[in-house]
Amino acid sequence: MAFIEVRHLRKEFVTPVRRSGRFGTLLSLVRPDKRTMVAVEDISFAIEQGESVAYLGPNGAGKSTTIKMLTGVLEPTSGSITVAGDIPHKNRKRSSYRIGVVFGQRSQLLFDLPVRDSFELLRYMYSIPREVYRRNLEEFTEVLEVAHLLERPVRTLSLGQRMRCEILASLLHDPDVLFLDEPTIGLDVVAKERIRAFIEKMNRDKGVTLLLTTHDMQDIERLCPRTMIIDKGKLIYDGSLQYIRDHFATERHIRATYDHPLLAESAAALFAVYEGVRATVEEQVLRLTYDQRRTDTAALLKLLLDASPPRDLTMQDENIDALISRIYREGLTVNPSAQRLSLEGAG
Ligand SMILES: Nc1ncnc2c1ncn2[C@@H]1O[C@H](COP(=O)(O)OP(=O)(O)OP(=O)(O)O)[C@@H](O)[C@H]1O
Ligand SMILES: [Mg+2]
Fold it and tell me: Which positions fall inside the ABC transporter domain (predicted)?
């Protein structure tokens, strides 16, 4: 059995709907109308110990709902989950010792008390041995650079400072797996980078299994070789980020800067032989956009360099963020790692 195993997971939320009008209100009292909302429809996956996986999807796709079920906060409507051999919502206490969790939008620290008091409380709650606590606190405060914040009330911290403390708190009890729901949301570049470096270190040095949701592509590029994409409560992709790049990142941009202004007409004429290459000119800068599958980059570059060598030349592929939103839009169903998606057939 894999370290984390999720099979045919489903979560419905049933919410009361109020009817309008006087009779409606009365009727709602005696016979409430209910609406069922399917947040997670049918999701299956397996994660091995020590993996680092991104869990992606557009707003409302069901990411947070999945994480709440994985951490035992919510009970699935149907389907099964095991994390480190336990069913999270059934053995909540026992699995909490193995699990760390950070919700970027919610705090687990006590707002009016100094940061250190929240850590002490966690030490008590998880019965962390003093020596382990001391060692982790020392190491984590150093890497996350929060030592100077420990005596400050949580409510006085900036978002970036608080998030670093939240992440520290989630790992004090040496969990085997860390679930992160948008850990870098709203942070500046420096804070994001610090958090990424720390999470990466925990995964690499301590083998902490990671599952993280994010809308920040740099988080994924830096931390997660494996990517799962969900849409409307269903898994639509499970595989490497590289595979997506190689197979769907087809658009490439070339930017050439010259010492002299260019003529738009001559540029258009030069590249007219290549159907599908868009050439635009802005003073001394020429931009080419093309589909890598249809146009050979080397041939295109040769044409460009032979015509007139530019002062500077840069090349860029479609960014991964744009790419993934295209996957949502076009509803691609890709299956590069069949053994992962076809869990249903196994066991
Ligand atoms: N407690 C709840 N009661 C009713 N509906 C809910 C509840 N929690 C979530 N939902 C609905 O379930 C769907 C999935 O929500 P979820 O929070 O899992 O999305 P998400 O993928 O985390 O999105 P985001 O990127 O915006 O964080 C949404 O349509 C949401 O409105
Ligand atoms: Mg969410």
Answer: 24-257
Q: Find the CATH number of the domain harbouring 141.
A: 3.40.50.300
61 lines ligand 1 (CB under 6 A): yes
Query: Which of 10, 13, 17 best tests ligand 1's pocket when mutated (most atoms within 8 Å of CB)?
Result: 13
Residue 8, pLDDT score: 97
Q: Which domain holds residue 309?
A: 250-317
Question: Which mutation among 65, 74, 102, 179 tests ligand 1's pocket best, with the greatest number of atoms within 8 A of CB?
Answer: 65
- Does residue 339 have a pLDDT over 50? no
Q: What's 295's domain CATH number?
A: 3.30.70.100
Q: Is 65 in the pocket of ligand 1 (CB under 6 A)?
A: yes
Q: What is the mean pLDDT of the chain?
A: 89
Task: Give how far Cα 15 sits from Cα of 8, 24, 29, 38, Å.
Answer: 23, 16, 14, 11
Which residue's CA is the nearest one to ligand 1's atom 29? 60
What DSSP string describes 263-314? Answer: -HHHHHHHGGGSTT-EEEEETTEEEEEEETTTS-HHHHHHHHHHH---SEEE
pLDDT at 342 over 70: no
Q: Can you tell me which atom of ligand 1 is nearest the CA of 182?
A: 27
Same domain, 261 and 187: no
